[in-house]
Design brief:
The protein has a five-stranded parallel β-sheet with strand order 3-2-1-7-18, with helices on one face. Strands 8-15-9-10-11 form a five-stranded parallel β-sheet, with helices on one face. The N and C termini lie far apart (51 Å). The longest helix has 17 residues, at 347-363. Helix 1 crosses helix 5 (323-338). By secondary structure, it is α/β, with parallel strands linked by helices. The protein folds into two domains: 9-168 and 277-403, FAD/NAD(P)-binding domain; 178-272, 3-Layer(bba) Sandwich (FAD/NAD(P)-binding domain). 22% of the residues lie in helices and 20% in strands. It is built from eight helices and 20 strands. The radius of gyration is 23 Å and the shape is globular. Strand 13 and strand 14 (264-265) form a beta hairpin. It has helices at 16-26, 77-80, 97-110, 209-220, 323-338, 347-363, 378-388, 395-403, and strands at 9-12, 36-38, 117-118, 122-130, 139-146, 152-157, 159-162, 184-187, 201-205, 224-228, 242-245, 248-251, 257-259, 264-265, 269-272, 291-292, 297-298, 312-314, 407-412, 419-424.
C-alpha cells in the first residue's frame, strides 16, 4: 500500500485486457494510485497489433501477435465493444483488425493511460512477499522487470493483474512420423498472408476460426488445401480449392499424410492451426498453488482468482467469449475484491467450488482442453459477476442481443473479399 493508504496495482500487458484494468483503476483515484502497466512491446493493442515479421523482434523477444494481414473479426462490433466506449458507428459490423487496434488506441488515449505504461519492458518475475516490518503479515507482490536499456527494476504492489494474453505460444501437437515430412511445417502464429503459398498443396490441421479462415485465404490464392479436423463436416460451403478430411494420424516414410479414414495425401506445407498454450514465464505457478497446462490453468475461482492468492488476477483466460465485455466484467469484479466490496469465501471453499464446476463439466463430457470455453454460458457468468458487485453497466444491451438469438452466418461473396459476414435476426 502506498504512503497515501491507497492500493498500488501492477498490470502485465497493454492489450485490451490490460488497458481495461488501467482505465478502471484510474477512474477510482480515492482507492487506487495510478497503475504501473508493463508492456513487452513498444505499442499498445496486444494481439491486435499486426506485425509482419515473424520469429523475434528487435530486442530478441518472440513476436507476440498472431495477427494476419486480412483478418476480420468473427464477432460484430456491437457485442465486442467496451460497454462505455462504442466503436465508430460508421464502421461495418465485422471489423478489419486495424480498426480494432485504432479503437484500442483511442480507448487508451481517451482515458489517459499511456503515461502509466512502461513500454519495451519485460517482466522477469512476479512473486508474493509477506511483509515482516511495516504492515507485518500483509501480502505484497514483488515485480522484477527489465527495460530496453537492460536495467533491472524491482517494485512492490498490493495486487497484480496478469493480462498477457494466451495467443502467443503456439501449441504444436505430436504427430507420429512427422520427421519423414520434408516440406514446410509452420504454425498459424507465423502466418501473415497467402500469396507465398500460391500453387502449393497444403494440409491445414484444425478447423477452428483461424483454420477455416486461413484455408479460405489460401484457396483464393490458388493453393490446394486439405482441411483436416475432427469435427463433423462444416455446415457451410467452402471454396473449390478446399476439401475437408479426417484427422491426420501419422506421416508415412514417403512423407505422405495418412488420415483417420485410411486415405493418403501428399503436401508441400503443413499448417498447424492447433491453438495456443498458456504460458506465464514470470510466475512460479506451483508455488502459487496453480497448475498450468497446455489448455488450462487451475484452480481459478470465478475463472479469475487463485484461491491461495486472492490479490492476483488472471483476466481473460476463458475462450469463446465476447472479449471486451468479458474483460470489463472481470476487472470490476476484481477491483471490488480489492476494495472490500466483495468478500471472498475461504480458500478451501473456493477450491471446492472450482473442483465441483470441473467435475460437472467432465460429467457432461467436456474435454479438459475445453474446460475454459464459455460460449453461451458467458452471459450467466457476466450476470453473476454484475450481481455480486451491484454493477450492470452494459448488461442489458448485451443480454438483449443474446435473447433475440441473433446468429452469425457465413455467406459466400465475391473474389475481392473471401466471405461476407452478416447478422441474421432469429426468432423474436
Amino acid at each position: 500500500m502506498s504512503q497515501s493508504g491507497k492500493l498500488r496495482v501492477a498490470v502485465i500487458g497493454a492489450g485490451a485486457a490490460g488497458l481495461c484494468v488501467a482505465r478502471h483503476i484510474l477512474a477510482r483515484p480515492l482507492t487506487f494510485v495510478p497503475p504501473v502497466v508493463y508492456e513487452l512491446t513498444d505499442h499498445v493493442g496486444g494481439t491486435w497489433f499486426y506485425e509482419e515479421r515473424v520469429g523475434t523482434d528487435d530486442n530478441g523477444y518472440p513476436i507476440h501477435s498472431s495477427m494476419y494481414r486480412d483478418l476480420r473479426t468473427n464477432l460484430p462490433k456491437e457485442v465486442m465493444m467496451f460497454p462505455d466506449f462504442p466503436f465508430d458507428p460508421k464502421l461495418p459490423s465485422f471489423l478489419h483488425h486495424q480498426d480494432v487496434l485504432h479503437y484500442l488506441e483511442n480507448y487508451c488515449n481517451s482515458h489517459a493511460i499511456t503515461p502509466h505504461i512502461k513500454f519495451s519492458t519485460v517482466v522477469e518475475e512476479v512473486k508474493p512477499i509477506t511483509m515482516e516490518t511495516e504492515r507485518e503479515g500483509a501480502l505484497m507482490w514483488e515485480v522484477i522487470s527489465c527495460g530496453k536499456c537492460g536495467g533491472q527494476s524491482t517494485e512492490m504492489f498490493d495486487s497484480v493483474f496478469v493480462c498477457s494474453g494466451h495467443y502467443s505460444d503456439p501449441h504444436v501437437p505430436s504427430i507420429p512420423g512427422l520427421e519423414h515430412f520434408k516440406g514446410t511445417v509452420m504454425h498459424s502464429h507465423s502466418y501473415r498472408y497467402p500469396e507465398p503459398f500460391s500453387g502449393q498443396s497444403i494440409v491445414v490441421l484444425g478447423a477452428g476460426a483461424s483454420g477455416v479462415d486461413i484455408s479460405i485465404e489460401l484457396a483464393q490464392a490458388n493453393a490446394q488445401v486439405i482441411l483436416s479436423h475432427n469435427k463433423p463436416a462444416l455446415p457451410f460451403s467452402l471454396p473449390a480449392g478446399v476439401r475437408q478430411a479426417a484427422p491426420v494420424v501419422r506421416v508415412l516414410e514417403d512423407g505422405s499424410f495418412e488420415f483417420q479414414d485410411g486415405s493418403l495425401a501428399h503436401a508441400q506445407v503443413l499448417m498447424l492451426c492447433t491453438g495456443y498454450n498458456f504460458t506465464f514465464p514470470f510466475l512460479h505457478s506451483t508455488q502459487l498453488g496453480l497448475q498450468v497446462q497446455e489448455h488450462l490453468i487451475t484452480p481459478l475461482y470465478k475463472f479469475l482468482v487463485p484461491p491461495a492468492y486472492p490479490s492476483l488476477f488472471f483476466v481473460g483466460i476463458c475462450k469463446v467469449i465476447c472479449p471486451f465485455v468479458h474483460f470489463n466484467c472481470q476487472v470490476q469484479f476484481a477491483l471490488a475484491i480489492l476494495d472490500g466490496t466483495v468478500k471472498l469465501p475461504s480458500r478451501e471453499e473456493m477450491e471446492k467450488e472450482v473442483r465441483r464446476e470441473m467435475q460437472e463439466k467432465a460429467e457432461r463430457g467436456v474435454q479438459t482442453k475445453h474446460l475454459l470455453k464459455m460460449d453461451s454460458e458467458q452471459w450467466d457468468y457476466y450476470k453473476m459477476l454484475a450481481r455480486t458487485v451491484s454493477h450492470s453497466d452494459g448488461w442489458k444491451e448485451k443480454r438483449t442481443i443474446r435473447s433475440r438469438k441473433r446468429k452469425v452466418v457465413l455467406v459466400p461473396h465475391s473474389p475481392v473479399r473471401r466471405w461476407k459476414q452478416k447478422l441474421r435476426n432469429g426468432p423474436q
